[in-house]
Design brief:
With 366 residues, this protein is an alpha+beta fold. The chain has helices at 24-36, 51-57, 63-66, 72-77, 79-82, 103-106, 111-114, 125-139, 153-159, 208-212, 230-235, 258-261, 267-271, 278-286, 289-293, 297-304, 315-327, 335-344, 348-365; strands at 40-45, 88-95, 144-146, 164-165, 171-172, 180-187, 218-220, 223-224. A four-stranded antiparallel sheet has the order 1-2-6-3, sandwiched between helices. It has a two-stranded antiparallel sheet with strand order 4-5. β7 (218-220) and β8 form a beta hairpin. The chain is globular, with a radius of gyration of 22 Å. Bound molecules: iron/sulfur cluster (2 copies).
Length: 366
């Protein structure tokens, strides 16, 4: 049920706004967050999170995030130690489940990136929301700093009571399932935690996400083999870029939604996803894997960068991804474009992917 202006009513929020739970500062922050379009707002006490290193040690191929005191997870594990001035994490969620994403874009780019809500670009509506919430907190007299890459956001948001986890490792809200962006900010105020940490809300015995993963990356509930996850492979040449999973990657060049699309906790939100995003409707007509294979500056700026600005800076990574995707189309009409791109390609991984794609398409054609 939606309230006026599309803002979820209290009964839909993960945090109960009713009664006398909130008063004063916390209530004002929640109200402002909802007014700005966040779907949930809550608070967690900042602490050190040693469990992130323990958890990573149990997952295959997480070494790149844990080695050395300055590694990402080593820093997240010492969040309070490294940010002694901060007392609380302001946690908020932005949902992007409501859009009926164009099919050809969805085949290649995950919803998170199509939504442009994850680390939104300056000047966009999502960026404004985040900046405005920070400004509001500052206006309330707090020191504020972005908490992304400083705290484990999913844990903080779970402790704030605004998300629960799925066995596919994604955070879930009631309004948007797992199609949600977490926004976190460190502040120097002791804010009261209102929500309760949610437990596992997955149906007993469910393992649809595990079975749906094209590459077998979810090796058991909550355990991801990083090197098999498609997004990780989309981002880099080495480490990652496991050629043995190219066949299973389909046409995905920037992320993957398979383990979320298969999830029964997302069924209702996907059924309600009917809103059209006019920009994506336009982009869907311009999106062409052959153009990404032969990526030039103009096409990169017009079609690629607007939705795939997050991770990949090396354009050869896009060219490699497009070659793999074209090889997985089963459409031999792409062979001439692959051959032409081969003449221009110099990067060994791009050449390998082109050769792989041509061989696969010719084999299938034969
Ligand atoms: S994002 Fe895709 S590749 Fe990664 S675990 Fe989920 S289904 Fe598997
Ligand atoms: S598919 Fe099942 S086990 Fe996986 S996250 Fe969804 S509900 Fe949980």
């Amino acid at each position: 049920m939606q309230g006026e202006a599309g803002i979820p009513t209290g009964t839909e929020l993960n945090v109960d706004l009713g009664g006398n739970c909130y008063s004063g500062l916390e209530h004002r922050i929640v109200r402002r967050g909802l007014e700005l379009g966040f779907t949930n707002v809550g608070f967690a006490a900042l602490r050190d999170y040693p469990e992130v290193l323990e958890e990573a040690s149990r997952r295959p191929n997480y070494g790149i995030f844990t080695q050395g005191d300055d590694s990402l997870l080593a820093r997240l594990a010492r969040a309070k130690t490294l940010n002694p001035w901060a007392d609380s994490v302001v946690c908020a969620t932005l949902g992007y489940a409501g859009v009926d994403y164009p099919e050809n874009l969805l085949a290649s780019v995950a919803r998170t990136y199509l939504s442009r809500a994850y680390t939104p670009q300056p000047g966009t509506a999502h960026a404004f929301r985040i900046e405005e919430l920070a400004r509001f907190l500052e206006g309330e007299g707090m020191r504020v700093d972005a908490a992304q890459f400083r705290v484990p956001q999913r844990i903080a948001c779970a402790e704030a009571g605004i998300v629960s986890f799925g066995r596919n490792n994604f955070a879930y809200t009631r309004q948007d399932g797992s199609f949600v962006i977490l926004v976190t900010m460190l502040v120097d105020a002791k804010l009261k935690t209102i929500g309760e940490r949610a437990g596992d809300e997955c149906p007993s015995g469910c393992r649809r996400c595990i079975d749906a993963c094209p590459t077998g990356a979810i090796v058991e509930p909550y355990k991801l083999d990083l090197h098999k996850c498609i997004l990780f492979n989309n981002q880099r040449f080495e480490p990652g870029a496991q050629e043995e999973i190219w066949d299973a990657m389909g046409e995905r060049i920037h992320g993957c939604d398979a383990c979320q699309a298969a999830c029964p906790r997302n069924r209702a939100v996907l059924e309600k996803a009917t809103a059209k995003d006019p920009f994506l409707e336009l982009l869907s007509k311009e999106f062409d894997l052959e153009r990404i294979l032969a990526l030039d500056d103009a096409y990169y700026e017009a079609v690629v960068r607007p939705v795939m600005y997050n991770y990949i800076k090396d354009r050869n990574v896009f060219r490699r991804n497009a070659a793999v995707a074209l090889g997985n189309t089963g459409d031999a009409r792409h062979v001439p474009a692959l051959r032409k791109a081969r003449q221009a390609a110099e990067e060994p991984s791009v050449l390998r992917a082109i050769d792989w794609a041509i061989a696969k398409l010719e084999r299938e054609g034969a």
